[in-house]
Amino acid sequence: MTAMLLHTSGALVTLLIALIAGVAIGETHIDPTVVFQVLANKLWAAGYALDPIDEGIVWNYRLTRALVAAACGAGLATCGVILQSLLRNPLADPYLLGISAGASTGAVLVALLGLGAGAISMSVGAFAGAVVAFAVVVLLGRASGVPGATGQIILAGIAGSQLFNALTAFLITKSASSEQARGIMFWLLGNLSGVRWPSVWLAVPVALAGLAVCLWHRRALDAFTFGADSAASLGIAVRPVQLLLISCAALVTAVMVSIVGSIGFVGLVIPHAARLLLGTGHARLLPASALGGAVFLIAADVLSRTLIKGQVIPVGVVTALVGAPVFALILVGRRHAR
Amino acid sequence: MTAAVSVAEPCVLSCSGLGFAVRDAQLLHDVHLAIHRGETLGLVGPNGSGKSTLLKLLAGVRSPSQGAIHLNGQGLKTLSRRTIAQTLAVVEQQADTLDTISVFEAVALGRTPWLSALSPWSAADTAIVEQALRDVDAAHLSRRTWRSLSGGERQRVHIARALAQRPQILLLDEPTNHLDIQHQLAILNVIHALPVTTVIALHDLNQALGCDRLAVLERGRLVALGTPLEVLTPERLLHTFGVHGHYLTDPFDGSQILRLRAS
Lengths: 338, 263
Hints:
The structure holds 2 protein chains of 2 kinds.
Chain A: H1 2-24, H2 32-44, H3 52-87, H4 99-113, H5 119-144, H6 151-175, H7 178-188, H8 197-216, H9 218-223, H10 228-233, H11 238-260, H12 266-278, H13 282-306, H14 315-337
Helix pairs in contact in A: 1-3, 1-13, 2-3, 3-8, 3-11, 3-12, 3-13, 4-5, 4-6, 4-11, 5-6, 5-11, 8-11, 12-13, 12-14, 13-14
Chain B: E1 11-22, E2 25-36, E3 40-44, H1 51-59, E4 66-71, E5 74-75, H2 81-87, E6 88-91, H3 103-108, H4 123-135, H5 151-164, E7 169-173, H6 181-193, E8 197-201, H7 205-208, E9 213-218, E10 221-226, H8 228-231, H9 234-241, E11 243-249, E12 256-262
Parallel strand pairs in B: 3-8, 3-9, 6-7, 7-8
Antiparallel strand pairs in B: 1-2, 1-4, 4-5, 9-10, 11-12
């Protein structure tokens, strides 16, 4: 019990340090003390005398950005863990099931055909697209699959991703002006610019709720170690649990993609790294992956803002540039460990 | 044995009119079977005769297309998966994982049906897992990783995991498959010594002679049920298995040995 308290407080301190660093580092350097003072002013009305510009940057721009990055990273990593565990496939991640491709199509449809206006309706479009794509993938997986087999849904996900990516490309080529196309491409590659407090109030509760649902089912996830039949014989209601947790992953991913666009590799790399470090027990794996995802995406966001002076690289580009080599190292390392 | 089994009989697990079909293929036809408390029932039959299918149905892992199964007098369909898993444990054929998992963790999975989301792992659970490992003579493997185990060791760990469920009934699907002869005999000794009702699918007919009763399956039908010497007659061996067989008496202990030749 004391060990658990120690781990939990350690994790929270790590997350806090990452958040503070994410807020302090940027084009305008802001001292961590100032960050604390802004937080104290806003949360407890501490009354420190501060430059209102600094205060605005910290509270309205950098803090919201860091919090959304943390929530997205945590949410995507959690989704990666449960998809890999349930589908018994090390390649499973939120993007493999066509969810992000569908979200992109939905967002692009809204942006180009003008179904409503502004960023909020683009998010709604992304969400609807994600749900439609996921439904298509699940139905295709069911129609083609032998009962109990989980490999089919991955093949269906690949087919679904290709279909919706093609639709997105078709829409952009057919309807977008070059300026629109550039904006959409930027969003598709993952973009944390422009997130404000409403996004925080959406992303953080969704990430926490997703984590809580998965933690509640941690023993069921453990029971899938030797496959779905083995889980059934251990007393797990396989179909309902799979449906609940995969839907949970789809919803969390859809919400995250609708806020920040496609950010790849977090759901794939972070769970693998956590498994290597901590083993496969989900009671530890889930919170560790969530923490790792949060810290990773905050760091990636800082890199995306500071790598090229005066320019922001899409954060999805940074996660892929860092994630792909790390993933390659993990693969090679696993081979040697055997 | 085709008479319908009434629910009132003193049997722990029974099925009546049991059938299973995948698309157009009928894999199991009209099976009636009653398994008595404490017995070891062997399932024998050629490849594809439906042994594994029958075990999966009895375990509730698959739902039957026709017929019903009763566990301690209650319809299997009416029981929750968790309740079934508290009564009945399954040792699958060749269940494997790529996860890095220790032997202790693998056996600890057997406690799953007894633990809810809020109940913490207790010292009693640890004691049950350690006892299960001792029961299959694998206590020394506790800290090893799954991947480092041999086939025989893995099979013993699977049985330990099933025992950690504290079941009344144990279903085993060819537990001696792919093991060397020493481990085959060791596993069978472990199984016969267990104080639970056991249903075991077996390929080796001489090993099946050690069961209390045998059920012979042929192309999805139950064609014989009784003591090993009653059902494994030379006619049955020729008809169902396509081999000639006769019995020899072991000069050392007087037991029967089945001598088989190609037909």
